[in-house]
Amino acid sequence: MKIGFYTSTFNDRPFEEVVEFAASAGFDAIEIDVRGHIKTPDKVQAAVALAREHNLFVSSIAYFGNQLDADRDKRGELRASTEEFAQAIGEAGVPIFIIFPGRNDEADEEANYDDFAEYANRLIAKTTASGLIFAIENWPGPKDNFIGTTPKGWQELFSRIPDRRFGLEFDPSHLIRIGVDLYTAMDAVKDRIAILHAKDTAIDADVQQSVGYHGKGWWQYKLPGHGLLDWPRFLRQARNNGFDGTLSIEHEDAAYGWPGKDLSQRKEGERLGLRYLRNVLDQI
To answer: By the 8 A CB rule, do 196 and 238 touch?
Structure first.
């Protein structure tokens, strides 16, 4: 497996600086955030070339946004931009494009799944030549209601989107905090996992007892090895399932400068994650 990181942790820094750090720190790969480091489709080729000049594999490009936005104009604008990015990403030879399904709060559950699946199937059809893989991250969203972020939601989507060029950026940290057994969940979708997000979650049982699931402050995202996840078990299971892709560290650990605080701490957090994951992979 390759180890990289998601560049959103450094969205306040020039992409050239981020790439130089990734290479000097010993990372194999990089996952580029559109909104932070590419901005427009015509910038894709240059960004990818720069990463490759530093011997970094561009594992994926991620484009945050609600593809089911209830506002028709916002939804249309995002989808048109997504299609342009998909074309540019495919032409650049990047294998995976990460998007977020989101949710239309004004539509029912069935309509949300039908709408997103219809759109995803069109994206797949339009990118046959490049073979680009589309993957959604299982982030529940700011209201904890995005579609396609639970085992049931995945099956709802996969039944509507049969092409294996549609899959998951599987992030175990989200499953920990919503109470889903991530090991069982991973086995059920092993053939649809395109990339793994390397992120952990810590839970403070005392705070949880005080405020309940709907309260705040009882869980925190952490770097790999600093939370509840059994990483040797998780990565051994992924390997046994045939996964040999990229582990992309998504650094959102407040103990190491996130979000957008001390730069040296953020970099140290990435280095810690890299060392920890390398050690686990060497031992399993």
So the answer is: yes
